[in-house]
C-alpha cells in the first residue's frame, strides 16, 4: 500500500486542528455511544467468556428449542439435512479425504457456538434466540457431540470450563516460513521439464452451468454472428414474461398487481427454504408452485413432519383462510410442523404473500 | 449453506456430450481466406438504418445498462455449490472483461444472509470497546472526514477452491471469478479509530455488518491502522446495494470475507473474537489434521482470461491476443510469464498499464498461432519475489482438504479447432 493516504490523512488532520475549534482528540465528529446502544449492538462473545451475559440452559430444553428452531436445516440430531451444515459427529475425520468439520470435531471455541447461535441464527430469523435459549442450544450441541451428559446445565459460570476437543488444532498462518521460501526462487524459463500431458479434464465431470447450446454458461458469442441472433437470452425472458398462461394460471380471480408485487417482496423471507417458478424442486421446504388448493402434506418427494402429513390426511387444504392462519402462527396452526418460520405478524403481508402464491401455477 | 466446494467426483456426473465447435471449425477453415473479399460487403455498400435515421434520444435510459448485445456478460452462479441463494456466491465474468476495473454491476457477490437495503439516513457506525470515547457516527458524520482513494482487488478466499481436487469447472468466470477490482473512495479507518481513541491494550478490531448474518471478522490493529478504509464510493459512484451500500470495509490484499459490508460496528479488543467466520470457516485444514488460521493475505496469482473455455478462439490461426489478470496481496505484480506448452518454456508477457499494489494488473501476450494445440499457463511474480506455484506444489504442502487460498497455476488446453478446456497437466 502506498503511503500517500497516510500522508494525506496526516495533513488533513493537522489542517483540521489548525482551522477548526481546538479539538485535541480529532475532529469532534460523532457523538458518544449510549450504554443502551452498546448493549444492543455489542453482543460479541469471546473465547475467554468476555461478553457472555448471565443465564443458563440445560440439554433437554436445548433439544426442544433445537427441534423447534434449528432442526429443519440441521436435522434433529444436528446431523445436517441436505447440504446444510453438520453440527455433530465427525470426530477423528480431520485427516480423512472427506473430513466432517463439526463443533465437536473442528471448532476450537465454545464461545463461537454461543455467539453465532445468539447473533446470526436461525437462518432467516436472526436475533430471535433468547439468552437462555442460546445457552440451552449450546448445551444440546455439546450433548449431541458426546461431550456432556444429558443432565448438563450450561451457565455463564461454568462456560469457560468446557473445552472443545479440537481447541489445540489451530495454528497461526505460517506460509511465510513454510511456503514463501519454496516459492521465491528465480523461476525456470526454458526446458523446465519433460513434455507434459493432460491428466485431468473438467469436461469429464460435467458440472459446469451450461448455455442452451451446451457450451459453458456465458460463452462469448462469435463476433461474426448477426446482431439479431445475439440477445436470445433476453428474448426468452421477455417471451416468458409476456406469456399470459404462465402469469395467471391457477389464479382464481383477477389479482391486484400491486398486492402480488408486494407479496413477491415478502416472499424473500421464505425463498431460502421454498422454491418457486419453473422447475422448482423441493428444498428445505416443499416447493410452492400451485400451493393454493393443494392438500397439506401431500407433495410427492417431500418429507413432511408427522403433524403436517396427518393434517393433510385429516382434510387440511391450503385455501386462503388456512394459509392465512398458518402464516400468522405456523406452530400454533399445525402443532409439530417442521417449518421454523416464526410467522408473519402483519395481515397485509399475509394477504400479499397469498396473492403472490396464487399466481404460481402447479 | 456450506462454504466447502464439492469434490471432483460428483455422484452422477457423466461425460459431457454436447456437440462442440461447428462454428469454430468453420471459422478455422476460412482462416487465411478472410483477407480478400469476394464481393462487396453490403454493410459498407448499402446505407444502413443506423446511418440514415435517428438513434435513441438522450434520457432514454437515465442510468444506462450495457447494450443488449452484451447481455451474456453477467454474474453467474453455480447452483449446486450452496444450499440457499441468500447465503451464496456468484462469479465475475472476467473472461469477457478487459482492463482492470470491474464494473460494480457484474462484480461477484457473496452474501451470508442476502443483500440488504440500508439507507444513508438509517445508517449508523459504532466504535466501542477498548477506546477512550465510544462513538456513534451518522453517514453525514463520515462524509466530513478527510477522504482517501485506492484501487484494490477483493478476492474471496475460496476463489478456485473447487479446483483443489482437480480441474472441475469450465471457464475462468467459475474457476477464478470470485474477484473484483474497484477504485474506492472513503475514510481511512485509522482516522475513525483516532477519533474514538484506541487504548494501549486494544490490539484487534472486530468489524461487523448490519445484515442478519452480521458477518464479523477480527483484524489486527496494525493492519487496521495501515491501509484499511471505510469506503462509500466505488468506481466513481455510490457502492451498489450488493457491495455494501452505503459503507463497507476495504481491506487491501486480504481475503474478501474480511471486507465487511453494511459495516455497522467496529469493536476494539485485546484479543481476536474467533467468530464463526474465522474458526469454522476460512481456516485451512492441513494434511496432519491441524488447521491454519488467520491466513489473511491473498498470495500472488494470475489467470489467462482469454482464450479460456468461455472465450474460445473462433478466428483460426494467425495473430492471437492472449490476455489475463495478475494480482498479489503482498504488493505489486512485478512480472507475468506465459507458457504455451504446459509450463516447459515461458516468455514474459507485457504488463498493460500500471501495476498497482494489491490491485488487478492486466497482461497481454500477442502471438502468431500456428493452429496447433497449446497448453496455456500464466505465472505471476510479485515484488517480494514470490512466484505463483503450480497446483501440485500447493497440494504437496497442503494436501487435498484445503478449500481456501488456491493460487495455483491454471492450465487451459487450446485445441486446433479453437475450443478451450480446463485441464491439469503432468
UniProtKB/TrEMBL annotation, chain A:
UniProt key word Zinc: no
Domain Cytochrome c, chain residue ranges per copy: 57-187, 258-361
Gene3D superfamilies in the cross-refs: Cytochrome c-like domain (1.10.760.10)
Superkingdom as given in the UniProt entry: Bacteria
UniProtKB keywords: Electron transport, Heme, Iron, Metal-binding, Signal, Transport
Signal peptide annotation: 1-24
Protein name: C-type cytochrome
From TrEMBL, chain B:
Pfam families, per the entry: Mo-co_dimer, Oxidored_molyb
Cofactor annotation: Mo-molybdopterin
Residue ranges of domain Moybdenum cofactor oxidoreductase dimerisation in the record: 292-411
Range of residues in the leader sequence: none
GO molecular function, one term: sulfite dehydrogenase activity
Keyword Metal-binding listed: yes
Top-level taxon: Bacteria
PROSITE patterns, alphabetized: TAT (PS51318)
InterPro entries referenced in this protein's UniProt entry, alphabetically: Ig_E-set, MoCF_OxRdtse_dimer, Mopterin_OxRdtase_euk, OxRdtase_Mopterin-bd_dom, OxRdtase_Mopterin-bd_sf, Sulfite_DH_SoxC, TAT_signal
Record keywords, A-Z: Metal-binding, Molybdenum, Oxidoreductase
UniProt name for this protein: Sulfite dehydrogenase
Upper taxonomic lineage: Bacteria, Pseudomonadati, Pseudomonadota, Alphaproteobacteria, Rhodobacterales
Name of the gene this protein is made from: soxC
